[in-house]
# Entry
Amino acid sequence: MRNTAPLSTTEWSQARAAIAAAIDRTELVDLVLALCNIPAPMGRGREAGEFVFEWMAREGFAPKRAGLVEDRFNVIGRYGGHGDGPNLLFTSHLDTESPLYNERDRYGMKPETVADKQWLGAWLEGEVFFGHAVGNDRGPMACFLMAAKALKKAGIDLAGTLYLTACPGEIGPEPAEECQGPAYLGKELGAQYMLTHGGVAPDFAIAAEGTDYGVNSAACGYAYYRITVYGESVFTPLIEHPAALSAHPNPIVRMAPVIELLQSWARDYEGRHRYESAGGTAIPKAQIGAVRGGNAHAMGAGSEVCSLYVEINLTPAQKIADVDRELKALFRGAGFGGVEVEPYVVRHGFDAEPAAVQPLHAALDAAHRLVRGTPIAPSAPVYSSMWRDHNVFNMNRIPAVTMGPTRWRPSIDDLVACANLYALAALGVCGRDR
# Structure
């Protein structure tokens, strides 16, 4: 076994100085802008993946691709691994939350929202980055790429393997209704596929996304539900309008009290199922995301069918069967007949076992103290109340957290500090090969 003893205080100080000197501020800015100006909206990512692959190859990180589909693949590079230290995996996603840039955008976004140049571009105003890809999620990706380069440039070899991974699909989409097949797959072809088929063997993982420098291991999953109300088709000249909307024959009209009932339930749901642990606080939210009913080109007899599509977050303590029973009991108790409740996407939330994730947390805390001068703090509940790809690793018994720089419009200094922090955390986990 190689010598991977902990570094002394003097060695940590020397490593900190060497890493800081090896991170070129201008190079980091250039990498962020180049990577974040590659359009990678939901369902795309090939161009961004090719860029990361070529960068890793040029810098000597021996990249490879692992893809379920040809145009959206994971990129996996590596550094170190010449001793017996623990292995650490960094991951960020290539795709950015955005419009779909097809005909469906007109049903979900205003034209001026679709036209916002921040979806597909990035730029600096003074010292501050603009562009959604910088925060979500290629700014933190650039930070861990530069962190690995700094370790290599500083001559700091790692005992354990440092995996550098860029994954598609974390944003989505999800198959639904007529939108089926590989083009509509999201998470199945991202970090989950990479962990299964990418040739990686991590002891720990960090989902590098903006958390305002907080850390958490807990994360929500989610379920997408279709709630369908059935009614009666009535020729418009014969329609009668009862005072109670719930008694109306048209299911589109009957959706009004259904929505009111769901909204009341959603407010109660997030309070009753609030999750608190050492890994973070998760507040499971629920929101109506879409509605379908009737045919706009043939309305003479109203509609017999109307469906709501609802996203319901799931904390690490929740199971889909319990939520399913709760929803169905809600409608039965309210006396709504002819309502069909069905999930069409289910992804559970997860949390790391506290003792198992402690070494990772300790390494991040030590790095945070060195770089930012304070202990690392738990992230805000919002960062535990969403899906992030560290869920994939925690569900597979690999202790994982999410941690990253300022989420919204980070500065150059933010990202330089984050690159330093990631490099020191990697050294703290993997150990120095001697």
Q: What stands out?
A: The mean pLDDT is 95.
